[in-house]
Write a structure and sequence with these properties.
The structure holds two protein chains of two kinds. By secondary structure, chain A is mostly helical. Chain A is built from twelve helices and two strands. Chain A folds into three domains: 45-133, Cytochrome c-like domain (Cytochrome Bc1 Complex, Chain D, domain 2); 144-224, Cytochrome Bc1 Complex, Chain D, domain 2 (Orthogonal Bundle); 227-259, no CATH class. Helix content of chain A is 52%, strand content 1%. A two-stranded antiparallel sheet of chain A has the order 1-2. Chain A is elongated, with a radius of gyration of 25 Å. Chain B is α+β, with helices and mostly antiparallel strands. Helices cover 32% and strands 15% of the residues of chain B. Chain B has helices spanning 55-58, 66-99, 105-136, 154-171, 177-199, 252-258; strands spanning 2-6, 16-18, 143-145, 220-222, 240-245, 260-264, 275-277, 280-282, 292-296, 308-310, 315-317, 324-326, 332-335, 347-349, 355-357. Chain B has a four-stranded antiparallel β-sheet. In chain B, strands 10-11-12-13 form a four-stranded antiparallel β-sheet, with no helix packed on it. The longest helix of chain B is centred in the first third of the chain and has 34 residues, at 66-99. Chain B starts with a strand and ends in a 16-residue tail after the last strand. Classes of the chains: A mainly alpha, B alpha+beta. Chains A and B meet through α8 of A and α2, α3, β5 and β10 of B.
């Protein structure tokens, strides 16, 4: 304690305390942000009982915005023709049911299990068709062409999601989410349905095989080593510049202040 | 040349003057108002961890207290430790450079990490040691060093002029103009050579900035998979995809100008306004096929690829400087530094039902240039 007491009134102490506080807040935020599970999909065949169960779930949880028959209201769009794939993406990533109406629904732990998601998807699909949930073989990255996936990703996805899938900002508070936690099925259904502001990448423009290549690339980037040592979120030159500018400059200023600070007369303290 | 003025600023105490800095043994502390480590006034018998007292000034300085000596000795050890760490890290750098191979990605990563870490530690330890040395052992006094004119004194200048004239006379450069002029002539081509080399940086761009490789009937290909585009394969509303001209899918030099984004709208969403061109009203709505529209992917600001397309708002956003184009109304600029809309590629279908270009872009793609008009 006396060690702290002897030093807490020094001019540097304030900066050190501020720096410590920022680091602690950053670490806490990172730890909290990291939590959250992912539901894995299974695609059992749709039966009438599943469709009915899905309808019940939908009407209990989704109809306040999407309407009792999924016809859409002023609060939410019509889901007729949206397909099971859209339901799977939105619900398995926790984006739906939405917490609030805002610019962007962020990823959060899903509120329903895989079976319930599949049942709701079956019911929505029974209303007007739409893209189906891909099977495990369709999203398997076994034997996929990662190099072609990289080319397609850089051309069509990287402008929003970043070259390593770290996500990025869009207009008016919207954002392109990071792809670091997305499962292959979620990536596939997102391309197929174009959730929120994301464009649709249908099977005509990006073939199912090409979708697998893209998924293979995204999955592959997650295990790539970081040649620079620190990835800084892999968001590219903006973060790097920001870290260097704010962190590095502040550090240099502190060092400069310390070097040029006038040495104090030790006084009676020195005779400890 | 320099004289040392010793003041103790913090206390405002009396000032003592020393005429010149005395000779010092390397590695010993300089003379100081409170000479740290000098336990006894006369230097002969003093020990104190390698500290040599300076005889001429020792009597002018108040003798340091025992606590000060202790602190100074401790600081000395810390400084020495820093320098030792720097030595070890520096040896580590050489060892890492010699010992770690760089013939695979993993090995290169390890090598880079080791080199960077050892060099950082070495430089940091040297710097930290020097700083601690200055702060804890050197005197806290202001030293004034006088500046003098940079000009040489008149005698030296006169002597130089004399030597120069003498040299000119010996070389006979004034007396023999033939040598002088041929020398100048001989160096002339070498002086002019850079101009010729610069000229060779060309050729001039000519009209190449105004045209791309898009031509009537050239098919559109999905970039990457290089398959031709039909309206049916691009039928999902809200779709967006990058397109390249057939025959140039691997020609990066042409693709930097010819890249196109294709966007599919829901019926009724696409509403490109008519524009006056000269004296006539023109609409580019007939450049679209089945609510599919094609725009240049090259930003009209400084040429970044624009493809952040939001299907809900129909905004095309440029990631570099946030220029925003409204795809539904002919890619008009609604925000940012871009000065003109993204050029639209006229589309039609050929006899086989494939999407083809009706013509090249009617305006130059990409950033403005001087003669663009």
């Amino acid at each position: 304690m006396s060690w702290i007491n002897a030093r807490r009134r020094r001019p540097v102490a304030g900066y050190v305390a501020l720096l410590l506080g920022l680091v602690v807040v950053g670490l806490l935020y990172g730890a909290i942000n990291r939590s959250g599970g992912i539901a894995q999909a299974s695609a059992p065949p749709a039966s009438q009982s599943d469709i009915n169960a899905g309808k019940d779930l939908f009407q209990a949880n989704c109809s306040s915005c999407h309407g009792l028959d999924a016809q859409g209201t002023t609060q939410g769009p019509s889901l007729i023709g949206a397909g099971a794939a859209a339901v799977y993406f939105q619900v398995s990533t926790g984006r739906m049911p939405a917490k609030e109406v805002g610019a962007e629904n962020d990823r959060k732990p899903p509120s329903f299990d895989a079976q319930q998601i599949s049942q709701m998807g079956d019911w929505v699909a029974s209303l007007g068709g739409g893209p189906a949930i891909p099977t495990a073989e369709q999203v398997s990255t076994e034997g996929a062409d990662t190099a072609l996936g990289e080319q397609l990703f850089s051309t069509n996805c990287a402008q929003c999601h970043g070259f390593a899938g770290a996500g990025g900002a869009l207009t008016y508070g919207k954002n392109a989410p990071p792809l670091t936690e997305s499962t292959p099925t979620q990536i596939y259904t997102a391309m197929l349905t174009g959730p929120e502001a994301m464009p649709v990448f249908g099977d005509g423009s990006i073939s199912p095989a090409a979708k697998r290549d893209i998924i293979a690339y995204i999955v592959d980037t997650r295990v790539e080593p970081n040649p620079g040592g620190f990835s800084l979120g892999r968001t590219g030159p903006v973060t790097e510049g920001l870290v260097i500018f704010l962190g590095g400059m502040a550090f240099l200023i502190l060092i400069a202040m310390w070097i040029t600070a006038k040495r104090r007369d030790p006084g009676p303290q020195g005779t400890e | 040349m320099s004289d040392i003025e010793e003041t103790d600023g913090s206390e405002g105490a009396d000032v003592s003057h020393g005429p010149v800095a005395p000779h010092r043994v390397i590695g010993t502390p300089p003379p100081a108002p409170r000479l740290l480590g000098a336990t006894e006034p006369a230097g002969a018998g003093s020990e104190g961890a390698g500290v040599v007292a300076v005889a001429e000034h020792a009597e002018e300085l108040p003798p340091p207290t025992a606590a000060e000596v202790l602190r100074a000795n401790r600081a000395e050890k810390v400084v020495a430790a820093c320098f030792l760490i720097a030595f070890i890290a520096g040896c580590g750098f050489i060892a890492a450079y010699v010992g770690l191979g760089v013939h695979s990605v993993d090995k290169t990563l390890r090598s880079n990490l080791a080199l960077g870490t050892s060099l950082t530690v070495a430089l940091l330890a040297l710097g930290a040691g020097a700083l601690l040395w200055v702060r804890h052992l050197m005197p806290d006094v202001e030293i004034v060093e006088e500046r003098h004119d940079l000009q040489s004194n008149p005698t030296d200048r006169a002597a130089f002029q004399e030597t120069f004239k003498q040299g000119a006379g010996y070389s006979q450069v004034v007396k023999r103009p033939l040598i002088r002029r041929t020398l100048l002539l001989g160096t002339l081509p070498l002086v002019a050579a850079p101009l010729v080399l610069l000229r060779d940086l060309g050729p001039q761009p000519g009209t190449s900035l105004r045209h791309t490789v898009w031509s009537p009937g050239r098919r559109l290909l999905y970039y990457g998979t290089n398959t031709p585009v039909t309206p049916a394969s691009f039928s999902a509303p809200g779709s967006m995809i990058t397109i390249v001209p057939e025959g140039f899918q691997d020609n990066q030099e042409e693709l930097v100008k010819a890249g196109v984004i294709l966007i599919k709208f829901r019926p009724g969403e696409l509403n490109i306004p008519t524009r006056t061109q000269g004296s006539t009203l023109v609409s580019t709505m007939n450049w679209t096929v089945d609510n599919i529209v094609a725009y240049s992917k090259i930003c009209t600001h400084i040429g970044c690829p624009v493809a952040l397309y939001e299907q809900t708002t129909h905004h095309i956003l440029c990631p570099c400087h946030q220029s925003t184009f409204d795809a539904a109304t002919g890619a008009t600029v609604i925000f940012g530094p871009a000065a003109r809309p993204l050029p639209q590629l006229p589309l039609t279908t050929n006899a086989e039902g494939y999407l083809v270009a009706k013509s090249d872009f009617t305006q130059p793609v990409g950033p403005s240039f001087w003669e663009r008009g």
